[in-house]
Fold this sequence. Notes:
By secondary structure, this protein is an alpha+beta fold. It has four helices and two strands. The two termini are 15 Å apart. The protein has one domain (3-65). It is 55% helix and 17% strand. The chain has a two-stranded parallel sheet.
Amino acid sequence: MPLIVLAAGxxxxxxxxxxxxxEQLARDSSNAKLTIASGSGHYIHWEQPTLxxxxxxxxxxxxxxxxxxxx
Length: 71
């Protein structure tokens, strides 16, 4: 199953453990990628809705086609 982990850029910048945790989430799947929302806080869906919509589209398309996510 495809997975895109969206990480808040502000959290990643302030806490290296946060980035490590997000990277681990992405590694837990064989079909995943990590996207860091630069400048965004916890509410990525409010601050960068286009990024969230794009991630959803990528996951749906990959699932429908039974393909790996493109980097």
